[in-house]
Amino acid sequence: MNIDPIAGYLGAEITGIDLSAPIDGETAAALRRLLGQYLVLVLPGQSLDIPSLKRATRVFGDILTVPYVAGSDQDPEVIAVLKEADECDIEVFGGDWHSDFSFLDEPPGGSLLQSVEVPPYGGDTLWSSQTGAYDRLPKDLKAVVDGRLAVHLGAPYGKKHAPPKDMAVSRSIKMHRGDESADRPRLHPIVRTHPESGRKALFVNPTYTVAIYGLPDDESRDVLARLMKHCLRPDFTMRHRWRPGDLCIWDNRMTMHYAINDYDGHRRLMYRTTFAGERPR
Ligand code: SIN
Predict the structure, then answer these.
(1) Other beta carbons within 10 Å of 20
(2) Going by CA atoms, what residue is nearest to atom 4 of ligand 1?
(3) Between 273 and which of 7, 57, 93, 158 could a Cys-Cys bridge form, CB atoms 3.0 to 4.6 Å apart?
(4) Would you place residue 91 in the very low, low, confident or very high pLDDT band (cuts 50, 70, 90)?
(5) pLDDT per residue as tens digits for the range 244-268
(6) How far apart are CA 121 and CA 108, in angstroms?
(7) Which residues approach ligand 1 with their CB closer than 6 A?
(8) How far apart are CA 137 and CA 32, in angstroms?
(9) What is the pLDDT of residues 105-153, one digit of tens each?
(10) Which residue has the CA at smallest separation from atom 6 of ligand 1?
């Protein structure tokens, strides 16, 4: 395997490995170690079919059927992340900074995204290292958030906290919205420790984190605004420009990501799997 780091805080391109073939124990352990270290792995030219994508997913954990988003026609455990060429001026799946399903009791450990069809330009994905954000957190903010909990809500899927009715979303991804279970607030530590690597990261995001638990409203708003401004500094990010066949694997415990929506008029199709995580500690 060749390993080329991509950015200062996260990301490595991995070549010299073929995940369409059976994955031996040594290779699997190396991939888990690399994901722990780099948080996002980019493997060009994999072009995995669905059984191989699922086999590669199991290297990192049990496959999770994510709630609220319908599985693809081929397999309920795989989401087809699709925007058709004629779907213009709409919201895309993952089109804001988030950590996947952080509002669940046990948010996912990570995901694999296999590109199938990419636009001639645009449609990149951004990731942000929240280990980097934690390491560089100003001391006064660290003193406020260490040991505290944040409130997460599944607002985009909820009933009480539903998205605006006139929000245009892709017809190519079927989402189950208006679900009361997504309105139930979940509390997670703001600083989270990875169960295997022991690394610490900030675990808040602008899509699902709505308050700092136990602080008065105005103070909670101020602290959250400062935290978000810090977490989303470009210093902590990497950007991937997709080519057909690329496979990206990311750690959802220690990163946020953002699907850039700048390719109206072109088709983009990705297959996505998710692996299980645990209650954040
Ligand atoms: C997502 O999983 O949030 C979407 C990522 C992408 O389409 O680039």
Answers:
(1) 14
(2) 94
(3) 57
(4) confident
(5) 999 999 999 999 999 999 999 999 9
(6) 30
(7) 81, 93-94, 113, 125, 257, 259, 270, 272
(8) 27
(9) 999 999 999 999 999 999 999 999 999 999 999 999 999 999 999 999 9
(10) 259
**214-255 pLDDT tens trace:** 999 999 999 999 999 999 999 999 999 999 999 999 999 999
Number of alpha carbons in the 13 Å side-chain half-sphere of residue 17: 22
Q: Which CATH superfamily is domain 2-275 in?
A: Clavaminate synthase-like (3.60.130.10)
Q: Which atom of ligand 1 is nearest to the CA of 272?
A: 2
Residue whose pair of structure tokens reads 């607002």 in the numeric block: 155
Q: How far is CA 138 from CA 148, 150, 155, 159, 223, in A?
A: 16, 18, 29, 37, 12
Residue ranges covered by each domain of the chain: 2-275
Average pLDDT for 159-170: 65
Joined tokens for residue 223: 């602290």
| Nearest ligand 1 atom, CA 125 | 8
